[in-house]
Design brief:
- It is a single chain.
- Helix content is 47%, strand content 17%.
- The protein is an alpha/beta fold and 367 residues long.
- It folds into two domains: 56-158 and 296-350, Rossmann fold, CATH 3.40.50; 160-293, Rossmann fold (3-Layer(aba) Sandwich), CATH 3.40.50.2300.
- Strand 8 (241-246), helix 9 (251-261) and strand 9 (269-273) form a beta-alpha-beta unit.
- It is elongated and about 55 Å long.
Amino acid sequence: MKKVLTLVVCVMLVSCIVVFAACSNSAAPAADTTTEAPAAAEEPAAAGASEYAGDYEITTVVKLIGIGWFDRMEEGLKEFADETGNTTSMLGPPQADAALQNQILEDLIAQQVDAISVVPFSPEACEPVLKKAMDAGIVVIGHEADNLVNCDYDIEAFNNYAYGQDLGALLAEAMGGEGKYITTVGSVTSKSQNQWEEGGVDYNAENNPGMELVERKLETQDEQKKAQEIMVEMLKKYPDLKGFQGATSQDAPGAAQAVEDAGLIGKVFVVGTTMPSISSKYLENGSLYAMACWDPAQAGKAMDALAVLCLDGRRDEIGPGLALGYEGYNDIQLNEMTEVTENPERYLEGSAMIVIKNVEEMAQYPF
């Protein structure tokens, strides 16, 4: 009887092992399916609700990193990636230098990214490397460079000359239409900045003959400290200096700091391109009369949206009246300011200009 019981127990144990093994094997395919296609993995594709959804690698190359303007642009690029599923990134040299920017572009060509959005320090200097990128099948989108030849499209925030005229009008308002003033740009090779400067100077030459331009297009290399040093020097050279129009996001705050330090608030007036996160304290204390800008985050999204349309083979959608879905870029028009005659339909502009003259207006733009 004892042997029989032992035999029965053994048989039962063997049966359990067989059943357990069979259950484990039948469950395996379900486990593999879950691993290959988890619900979370399909979420980027679900972003197909966005007309720019894709799996492209798009890198934006800016003039320099580490300043508030391009920090804000990077925020927009990250949002674009979250919204569309594309991979975006931003690179730039630690100082505004065409050769350093070109090296970054060369590296991206070697990496075979799908698209490059570029804000060139010097459009002329980067033409050869951008041609190389296009020859390699990389889509190139420009910004702040409507003289860029080697690009699929260039998108400006607005008509650059008209923007400069508005800056000039702000300066004339502050100065009462008379007195000596100076202008700065990051570099004489930075196309859009020179258009702004020329628009302002031409406006005041025509409308305010009492305003005297004593120095123009002084180069700041997009550095606030350099802009401040220039303003200190100009205040010494021209004790009766009354106005300043700056181009880069760093120029106006640098000049405003010099005005504040010299105790000349209310006597010397500063206007220029900058934004609240960089220049709020100067607008608040009166050393900055007014700032003009556009939202770099929206500009970054607009560039990458154009890149996706190109990569998707949807160039026929790009033209006057195009609504990209980003503030300031919902009624795209042709840029008639470009000097490029080959395929001028590649040169576009939005209507993204923002003017801020007081603290209340500044509160509307938390960037």
